[in-house]
Model the fold of this input.
Amino acid sequence: MLNNNAIVGVIGSGAMGAGIAQVAAVAGHKVVLYDNNAAALDKAKGNLIITLQKLQEKGKIADAAAIINRFSFAAQLSELSNCNLVIEAIVEKLEIKKSVFSELEKLVADDCVLASNTSSLSITSIAAACTKPDRVFGLHFFNPAPLMALVEVIPAVQTEPSLIPAAKALMQQWGKVPVIAKDTPGFIVNRVARPFYGEAIRIYEEGIADMATIDWALTEIGGFKMGPFTLMDYIGHDVNYVVTETVFQSFFFDPRYKPSFSQKRLLEAGWLGRKTGRGFYNYAADAIMPEANKDTVLGYRIVERVLVMLINEAVDALHLNVASAEDLELAMTKGVNYPKGLLHWCDEWTADKCLALLDALYHEYHEDRYRASALLRKKGTERERFFPAQ
Ligand code: NAI
Done:
């Protein structure tokens, strides 16, 4: 039932749900958008109308009115009963998601398929709340959904296997770049990206460099669009810290994912980043932004340390079959706009150099956080590449 004619239901009309609903309607589907909060639904409706009209003015879509006519806005879950695909994007709480899925299942047809946009919960445990868990899978969009190309497609342990290629094909029809990720904490992006934040904070906590210098190094030398401190302030520490803590707990407290006190304290202080005017940086109109120390030797040291940790994470995800090498590269370039895929970056730096850098950190700290993936050790020792040389 995952074809162009599918009626798409979206549960939750917040930042993600409204964005996903927009993508589905622009792709030609009839969309039923449901929220249990009438004010949130009204706000989403108003914003969607404005957004689609602006897109028409810019020439990005031909007929905003026709797209708006494909929407219905539902105040009851039962109004999703004739949907063929329902995507859930409600609050990130397992028990609430489970009860919504179990209620939804009683309302829709047997061949309706159900997806969750969760960023950190197990798809398998959501599916377990259903009597037909084989029709449940993960469809993880990125924020803002209409602009970010990546969608992680996640089979639960119980998912009917043929559903995954069908979901992938549908996402391609929607103009998205789908990748398939194993149902493990953080899927691809939220797992592999952890060191971009965690190692940057560690460098700062050790006093090796200040935030402005670390941000400068990773943007100017590393080529990342935003430095880690600027990015964390932008995402908000309520979101970014909570993802880190959830991933850490879900990995049975693996020290590689250990959260930091610096970021936890910001959360406790209510310094959530840009949205509260203060996070790592102070955004008050009269605040003076700190200046970076543009010492290139220090800058390269910072980039090497953060990057080798990111590379190790990507290599380990490949080693543990979280995703294919191609999908890992797509995920990091399309989901978080990294300038290069991390496995290509490893090939460019060479696996033996990456392994040597990581082993030097391990030797210096004797912390499990710096242990090299078995696959990086093999590639480094045998001087192998992940992709053929161009
Ligand atoms: P949000 O807080 O902006 O929106 C959630 C909406 O769900 C609200 O409008 C709320 O009224 C509604 N809702 C809550 N419980 C409900 C229920 N029982 N029935 C119907 N509607 C209900 O949240 P956001 O940011 O859109 O996140 C939604 C989901 O998407 C979460 O699972 C989150 O982890 C995931 N996600 C969020 C991303 C982000 O950057 N914000 C990125 C990717 C995934």
User: Anything to note?
Assistant: The beta strands are 8-11, 31-34, 71-74, 85-88, 113-116, 136-141, 150-155, 177-180. The CA atoms of residues 152 and 239 lie 19 Å apart.
